[in-house]
Amino acid sequence: MEGYDELISSLTPRQESDAVSIHQNTVGIACPACEERFDNLIVCKDEFNSLELDFAMDICTTTHDGNPLLFTHKH
Questions:
Q1: Which helix (H) or strand (E) holds 69?
Q2: Long-range contacts of residues 20-29, Cβ cutoff 8 Å, at least 24 apart
Q3: What pairs with residue 38 in β-bridges?
Q4: Quick one: pLDDT at residue 51?
Q5: Are 55 and 25 in contact (CB under 8 A)?
Q6: SS3 of 64, please?
Q7: Domain count, the chain
Q8: For the whole model, what pTM was predicted?
Q9: How far is the first Cα of the chain from the last one, in angstroms, to the nearest whole number?
Q10: 67-74/40-44 β-pairing
């Protein structure tokens, strides 16, 4: 993904673990997949991850350096 480091530096870090990092989009950046504003970027670092979602949302995906990137969109 071109501009990954720039994207990450523009987002607000919310959670960091060995398996997942979550960054909140507090500045209204557009999702690279659908071009709509996204709420959070979830970077999956482990081969397998399980996400427990608190509410319904749409998810757009891409990868960077073999890691899945999930762009969440709240309903």
A1: strand 67-74
A2: 20/44, 20/45, 20/46, 20/49, 20/51, 21/45
A3: none
A4: 79
A5: no
A6: strand
A7: 1
A8: 0.86
A9: 26
A10: antiparallel
Q: Of all helices (H) and strands (E), which one includes residue 57?
A: strand 57-64
What would the two tokens of residue 45 be?
């670092």
**Structural domain of 43:** 4-74
The per-residue DSSP string of 5-56 comes to HHHHHHSEEEEE-SSEEEEE--S-PBPTTT-SB-SEEEEE-SSS-----SS-
Q: Residue 26 CB: number of other CB atoms within 10 A?
A: 11
| Model pLDDT for residues 5-61, shown as the tens digit of each residue | 999 999 999 999 888 999 999 999 999 999 999 999 999 988 888 877 777 889 999
